[in-house]
Amino acid sequence: MGLIIAPLDSTDELAYSTTQGFRILQTGDFFQQCGATTAIASTTTETSYLNVASTAQYQGITGNSLVPATTLPFFPGSSLTKCLYLNGQIVGTIANTGTPTLRTRVVLKNSAGTIVYTLADTTATAMTTVSTSDFEINFDCLVSSAGSAGSIISRVSHRYATTTVFALATAVTVDTTAGYYLDVLQTWGASSASNTVTIQWARMGAA
How far apart are CA 59 and CA 187, in angstroms? Predict the structure, then answer.
């Protein structure tokens, strides 16, 4: 079982059984990925952690049925209401060669997939040398005001081995009357087959 995208309705819950065990989508979760995805490696191109292009691996919900998913979680126009709180966690493994930089950012994309707003950004930060380590991204976004000149306050961090890189919470002016895809992106500062991240699971929720 790959990705499951559930409605934003906080009353919705979904239970499913896979060869990897039994998992319940908790109330409020709208995005769940179970199982490893293809490693992000050998590139300096900014890459989505939540790439749902592979319909063989990702599933979405239509009514009560599981169907192939081909898009990121989408927030229709005006659904980013005041005090809506979004949070997420992405967990996997990481390795590098030397001390490349690593950048993680949380963005909103329009319906065409173009980045419109950067909500939080660690910027390109030099890593220590890591042969193999666990890796984790955490982010929080709060809609502090809604409307054509609304505001979203966000922060993001990524952690590997004993190092944690934080981006302090910042407020970004956002037109919340439009619709957006939420995405989490990574950029390696050097291209190498040894610079790699493999995501094991991910979760995003709304409250």
Answer: 26
State the residue range of the domain holding 197: 3-206
- 124: Cβ contacts below 8 Å, ≥ 6 apart: 101, 102, 103, 187, 189
* pTM of the complete model: 0.79
Q: How far apart are CA 100 and CA 46, in angstroms?
A: 14
59 close to 35: Cβ distance less than 8 angstroms: no
Number of domains the chain is built from: 1
Tens digits of per-residue pLDDT, 92-139?
A: 999 999 899 999 999 999 988 899 999 999 999 999 999 999 999 999
Helix (DSSP H) and strand (DSSP E) numbers for the chain: 0, 18
- Cβ-contact 206, 86 below 8 angstroms: yes
Residue 28's contacts (CB-CB under 8 Å, 6 or more residues apart) are 10, 205, 206, 207
CB 85 within 8 A of CB 29: no
